[in-house]
Specification:
The complex is a heterodimer of chains A (251) and B (230). Chain A is mainly alpha-helical. Chain A has a single domain, classed as MetI-like fold. Chain A contains nine helices and no strands. Chain B has 230 residues and is an all-alpha fold. Chain B has a single domain, classed as MetI-like fold. In chain B, helix 1 runs antiparallel to helix 6. Classes of the chains: A mainly alpha (251), B mainly alpha (230). The interface between A and B is large, with 44 and 45 residues.
Chain lengths: 251, 230
């Protein structure tokens, strides 16, 4: 094996002229987090609604919710990225489609990436919220009804406050999945952390330094997320309940 | 792009898409599943081992793999495998590794971490008395594991293992990032050649949906069929 390690490469200037390679990668982390957080907001909003609707007694609403989940769950993320990036602008009305296609560089990939990742993740959150609501004792909903609460009020005051506190631990791992999955956005040209590590490898030929740095940054980010979420979990834990365990599989 | 869609492009490239692309995807999925479950089971046994060093090493590997994006892992192995190959056979220069081999090693090693967690749960789901009974009968560790614990663990975890395989099937589309010709890669090549991105990518999405949805439904049926009533 003859690979010449050279860690000083991180202090060298990157060809784009924005500063050192180190700064280049850190800005990449910024884009990774910006993508993941924006997608997370969309995913939480849609996922909570869809997950709740799937537990209602209305058959057609449940079916529609199930169809939504199956569609976004059974198509690979990268294919969904391509659909949002290449296909959707063509199907939009001409003016809007052209506007999307002519957005300046980072935004032209950022917007499709966020929408795609948000909807992709919303399905997983919908599953978690649904199983959270279903894990509540049936008596809770019945008690709410017996107290004279309508369906909406029952969800608002009895079921959802408990369900959300139960599903928080599995949501932590979903948040880490969003961060990891945002790397797929490099295929539609978003220069986030992995994308920048690859670009750095192409410019500087320092393959392993670039990927080692990206790896270290991902690990550090994960660590921070885990600690932050653990603190939050302790705060909102439902007294007297063993916290719900995350289902196996996925990523 | 000229007006109107041309779904004829799918018919024209049908053979290439399925004979080249889909065969690559399915072979990769099947082999990576077998390899992943094999190494995943070994990792799970290591994680549950009473030897601290073994369980620590396996645990670190699994946690490392699970906290990295698959795309980054694909890049790592794509560049690393030639060097590891050279190191293994004592060559001076990095050996040439085909894209299929590189993908296969990547997915086997990456999915092994996820299969490991499933198998660990499976082994832990077997009643402890089973292990004691095995030892009481005079079986050693490997016999107890191979004949008593693992068969039950596999049976308990079969639906989860298969669900993970459906995820693996979808994940193989990420080999696009190293320009391998899997189903998506083949479709992307045709799409760019004929400038038919809308038609091709829609078609790819539909095909992936049909296969994944079909497989997941089968897994669900199997789950109902083999569930052990306790």
């Amino acid at each position: 094996m003859n690979y010449n390690w050279d860690w000083r490469v991180f202090l060298a200037a990157e060809p784009g002229g924005t500063g050192t390679y180190l700064k280049y990668l850190v800005v990449g982390l910024g884009w990774t987090l910006a993508t993941a957080l924006a997608a997370w907001v969309i995913a939480l909003a849609i996922g909570s609604v869809v997950g709740t609707l799937r537990t209602t007694p209305y058959k057609w609403v449940v079916r529609l919710g199930n169809a939504y989940v199956e569609i976004f769950r059974n198509v690979p993320l990268i294919v969904q990225m391509f659909l949002w990036f290449f296909v959707v602008p063509e199907l939009l009305p001409k003016g809007l489609g052209d506007w999307v296609k002519q957005m300046p560089p980072p935004w032209g990939s950022y917007l499709p990436a966020v929408i795609c990742l948000g909807l992709y993740t919303s399905v997983r959150i919908a599953e978690q919220v649904k199983s959270g609501i279903n894990s509540l004792p049936r008596g809770q909903g019945m008690a709410g009804t017996a107290l004279g609460l309508a369906l909406g009020a029952n969800y608002r005051y009895v079921l959802l406050p408990q369900a959300f506190r139960i599903v928080l631990p599995p949501l932590t791992s979903e948040f880490m999945n969003v961060i990891k999955n945002s790397s797929v956005a490099l295929t539609i040209g978003l220069l986030e952390l992995t994308g920048r590590a690859r670009a750095m490898q192409e410019f500087s030929f320092k393959v392993f330094e670039a990927f080692a740095a990206a790896t270290a940054i991902y690990l550090l980010t994960n660590l921070l997320v885990v600690y932050g979420m653990r603190a939050l979990e302790r705060k909102v834990r439902v007294p007297g309940l063993i916290s719900a365990s995350a289902p196996a599989g996925g990523h | 792009m000229d007006a109107g869609f041309d779904f004829d492009v799918i018919q024209r490239s049908w053979g290439y898409l399925f004979r080249e692309g889909m065969v690559f995807t399915l072979t990769l999925t099947a082999l990576a599943m077998v390899g992943g479950i094999f190494f995943g089971t070994l990792l799970a046994m290591m994680r549950l081992s009473k030897f601290r060093l073994l369980s620590y090493a396996a645990g670190s590997y699994v946690n490392l793999m699970r906290s990295l994006p698959l795309v980054l892992v694909i890049f790592w192995f794509f560049f690393l495998v030639p060097y590891i190959g050279a190191w293994l056979i004592g060559a001076k220069d990095p050996v040439k590794v085909g894209s299929f081999m590189s993908c296969l090693i990547t997915f086997t090693m990456f999915e092994a971490a996820y299969y490991c967690e499933i198998m660990r749960a499976g082994i832990q789901s077997v009643a402890r008395g089973q292990v004691w009974a095995g030892y009481a009968l005079g079986l050693d560790y490997w016999q107890t594991m191979g004949r008593i614990v693992l068969p039950q663990a596999f049976r308990n975890m079969l639906p989860v293992l298969l669900t993970q395989t459906v995820i693996l099937f979808q994940d193989t589309s990420l080999v696009y990032v190293i320009s391998a010709t899997d189903f998506l890669g083949a479709a992307a090549k045709v799409a760019n050649r004929d400038y038919r991105l809308v038609e091709m990518y829609t078609f790819v999405a539909v095909v992936y949906f049909i296969i994944s949805f079909g497989l997941s439904s089968l897994v669900k049926q199997l789950q109902n069929k083999i569930a052990i009533i306790r």
